[in-house]
Amino acid sequence: MNALASSFYNAADSLEPASVAVDSLTQRDPRKRQYEKNKCFKKIRRLVGQAVSDFNLIEDGDKVMVCLSGGKDSYTLLETLLNLQQHAPIQFELVAVNLDQKQPGFPEDVLPNYLAAKGVAYHILEEDTYSVVKALTPEGKTTCPVCSRLRRGILYSYANTVSATKIALGHHMDDVVETLFLNMFHGGRMKAMPAKLKSDDGKNVVIRPLYYCRETLIEQWSEYADYPIIPCNLCGSQENLQRQMIKQMLLQWDELQPGRVENIARSIGHLSPSHLGDHQLFDFKSLSQDPRPKDAIQARQIL
Q1: pLDDT tens digits for 120-159?
Q2: How many domains does the chain have?
Q3: Which site in 29, 123, 227, 279 is 20 to 30 Å from 155, CA atoms measured?
Q4: pTM to 2 decimals?
Q5: Of the candidates 202, 200, 183, which has an alpha carbon nearest to the alpha carbon of residue 191?
Q6: In what side-by-side order are the strands of the sheet with 205-207?
């Protein structure tokens, strides 16, 4: 474990992040709630620290552009990176960026107010991708692929504008496993989401610090933190999406056999190419039997 990851383990009680909604549990036993809240954040911090260590996600002098959507994942990502910034033995800069896609009913003031209150440097990009997505997507089809490509292109371009060395996204373990099955079921490929990725043009490096975190853990923390969540109207208005079907499959596995999703995620990092079928990853054509001792003796006798 490097010093950067170790800082997550050692700074156990050093942060009181976000505000917590007052409920009946708080009124009955606020100390118990505070204990559970700290325990939840410590686990997230530990898992993020492990990902940072395993994949060298953040380095000294980095300028990390944190993509903030207003959902639980990106809020948790920003909170954890702010904590890391305070306690890590290296220096790096954070800048939060939100893309206002001009969705109907989008609350434009929520994120600026939240970020200003926390003292975080931020930029709000305004691009009417909503109209473009609706125009390009046939009726009844999911808008997610087109929306994702447009959003990624805008954010990649802006990262270069602000000289960001890393782009931090809020994808978690469930996203990784869901993507693996999406590609297997519908694309015939074993491909998931990496914790660290260089863009095709080589100009950007994407990192996913929540790579080892389950979505349920993030949901739990989000409830404690009482973030001002902004729903995604484009995705939320479409039912029976392929990803939603796979998400339901994972939820059923969690109920029937806890730990299965974690094992699948773990298997992504423990491949055995010789026991798969990709001849570009493993040279099956050159495989041959090793000479037997008897054959070797006979060969020497002939010589």
Answers
A1: 999 999 998 888 888 887 877 777 778 888 999 999 999 9
A2: 1
A3: 227
A4: 0.86
A5: 183
A6: 122-126, 93-100, 63-67, 166-168, 205-207, 196-198
